[in-house]
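User: Need the bound-state model for nicotinamide-adenine-dinucleotide:
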Amino acid sequence: MKTTKLTVKNLSSSYSIIVGRNILNQISYQIKTLCPEAKKVALIVDKNVPKKFKIKLKKYLNKYKVYTFEYSVNEKFKSFINVNKLVEKCLANNFNRSDVLVSLGGGILGDYSAFAASIIKRGINFINIPTTLLAQVDSSIGGKTGVNSTLGKNLIGTFYQPRVVISDVEILKSLPKREVVCGYAEILKHSLILKSNFFNWLKNNSQQLLINKNLNLLKKAIIESCKIKIYFVNKDIYEKNVRMILNFGHTFAHAIETQNNYSKRINHGEAVIMGMMMATKLSYEKKLCSLDALNQLKEVYDFNNLKYDIKRFFKKSEYAKIIEYMTADKKNNDRKINLILLKKIGLTTQPNMYKISSIDLKKVFDKII
Ligand SMILES: NC(=O)c1ccc[n+]([C@@H]2O[C@H](COP(=O)([O-])OP(=O)(O)OC[C@H]3O[C@@H](n4cnc5c(N)ncnc54)[C@H](O)[C@@H]3O)[C@@H](O)[C@H]2O)c1
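Assistant: Bound-state model below.
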């Protein structure tokens, strides 16, 4: 498989995303060139990543003093308290700005490690090696770091760019189907907001991607997805405007995750699946998109058994709480809920163009779940 290099380049940063198969050996060259003064590496590892990749990575880092921190992760792990513990450990071992923090894990570990890297001595070098499909197509790109608060998802964090992202598709082989589905959801989101032909490709190849985990097709999906994310990030690194389009479905999703108390019953990708359907149904209710667009999305969901029925998870009495969490979303700049809705497959409304009050959302809630 050919290795592909994409570049994120904007006014505040420039770094590469390297996608290929069996490419962990890139790490030594990348540190040598990007962080020539580095002496220490903090290797932050997800326990579920197969051992052979950890052994390989340590071998490639043999020129450095490596401190390994291994964690079992879930959304509750992504907390300010846990970040503080890691920061203190790095400080106790005299990490300097010239040293490096490497994350080998999914989106949870990546968000957590990047946030820690951004605040240790006001920022040490950060390298991301995403190991889930979701992290390779989405969370490793764009420099959003952070942790959850009891008041809402990802409410604490910074913008901090990695020095390089190394996405090795070989690592995806051990990923459970449930997690592949979550990555597929974010890829689908990228197609929905910008490229209808990519949506059709994803529709036609869904079984190859989800069931067979065809690594060549997964690589193609990762590259396409990264390009779409890079397009938005480069236009608006600090999410003041167009980057908000990437949040399609996420205002619903984050509120669902918060109401779910971040329990494993619904993970982030599954909440995104529900959130995108709710946003599309609302788009149809508000006459922004056609019934055909809604049906096209339903068809992909039904064919691949993507579950979007939130009634299975929440009692009616909890809906008001979900709406309340939506009003606390970061994108809101007044008391209304600021949403990105769908106009057609491949096109959304612009940021700040569609806002709904919690009272109005309550009125249509039964129709969009
Ligand atoms: N920063 C951003 O821009 C951004 C964007 C999207 C999502 N996110 C965040 O990403 C998080 C979700 O990320 P995720 O879906 O990767 O979840 P995750 O990090 O929890 O990983 C999912 C599961 O897969 C396991 N795992 C990881 N790599 C594996 C491998 N190679 N083989 C087997 N198991 C493996 C993990 O241990 C975990 O159980 C959420 O917290 C979300 O808020 C951030």
